[in-house]
């Protein structure tokens, strides 16, 4: 039995799901293939993902392949209640998600999705897999494998594997080129700034934007912020990534040095307390704090609450103002959760088309290959990544060269010299 906010929103949800589907041609082609081949026939899938229109089209694709799907939200603030209603009412999925639910409701929904007894799991942050391994060990015996969508989740899975705790194979879908390069760089880069602008209506040109982390997400943000006229400062702990940022012309500093300079701060690291209390104490009046890392721990919100003498909730949608004892005001967006999903609509559907195509094809591969895989973190087969890229290029009417027989021979021979 699903747990959603309002089933009467289904009609609006269908319209938005179909709108997203128009710019997801790769996933649509895979859905048609799945309907004919039924690679997931009879399998139960439990997913903990953002309940958005793009995710809805992934769910439809898994269903076309023969799977029954139970979906819980991976972030309460990103849940689109009309999408959840459409998935239940029109597409026959089980959904356990309500926008804005509290921590208790969040984990209750994960448990409800797991009650379906899944054969395969899809996770976005590793909370579902974590719950399986800690609280629902009775269900582990039926799980054949799963996919993880985020950097944060993959980090947690590798730690589980190192400690010998992981009980079934998990595939790091996050690490495919067609996911982390395009989803993180182009998707997060655009949607994060979209969320900040929607929440604050601030002009980014001329501002100093401090970006914590220079992985693919940080690179995408830095490129787009510079394109909008901002001065960009990057903070990093990785010397190679810091050097990359410097050689691309961005200022690179420790957060302690950047804190007094920034007008807007964006965290995209996957780690906790990246912006800590002593950083908050040094910030200028009116500084804006936003997070696009997975969990709401990158900005030390508890420290901010303790420092504040007043808190003005909802000064704008998804914007809370914290007044400090010296009169300075800091603005926290989306409660420190994912600003691109809470204050905007997440990645454009055209980007999620590739990420969810990876998910769908990997699920089909897992359904047949799981018996040959150890309980560890596995890479997506390269042919799946290449197939998604090929389909995406075809949908854009872009052709590329192919190797001749002589070129193939040259690349695979060591006997031919210069």
TrEMBL record:
Major place of residence: cytoplasm
Binding site for NAD(+): 150-152, 184, 213-218, 236, 271, 292-294, 340
Protein's name according to its UniProt entry: Adenosylhomocysteinase
UniProt pathway: Amino-acid biosynthesis; L-homocysteine biosynthesis; L-homocysteine from S-adenosyl-L-homocysteine: step 1/1
Domain of life: Bacteria
Alphabetical list of Pfam families matching this protein: AdoHcyase, AdoHcyase_NAD
Role played: May play a key role in the regulation of the intracellular concentration of adenosylhomocysteine.
Taxonomic lineage: Bacteria, Bacillati, Actinomycetota, Actinomycetes, Streptosporangiales
Matching SMART domains: AdoHcyase, AdoHcyase_NAD
Cofactor note: Binds 1 NAD(+) per subunit.
Compartment(s) where it occurs, according to its Swiss-Prot or TrEMBL record: Cytoplasm
InterPro entries assigned: Adenosylhomocyst_ase-like_sf, Adenosylhomocysteinase-like, Ado_hCys_hydrolase_NAD-bd, NAD(P)-bd_dom_sf, S-Ado-L-homoCys_hydrolase_CS
Keyword Cytoplasm: yes
Cofactors: NAD(+)
Family: Belongs to the adenosylhomocysteinase family.
EC number(s) from the headed UniProt entry: 3.13.2.1
Reactions catalysed, as given in the entry: S-adenosyl-L-homocysteine + H2O = L-homocysteine + adenosine
Alphabetical UniProt keywords: Cytoplasm, Hydrolase, NAD, One-carbon metabolism
Species: Actinomadura vinacea
Record's keyword annotation contains NAD: yes
Residue stretches making up the S-adenosyl-L-homocysteine hydrolase NAD binding domain: 184-346
Gene3D superfamilies documented for this protein: Adenosylhomocysteinase-like (3.40.50.1480), NAD(P)-binding Rossmann-like Domain (3.40.50.720)
Residue sites binding substrate per the record: 52, 124, 149, 179, 183
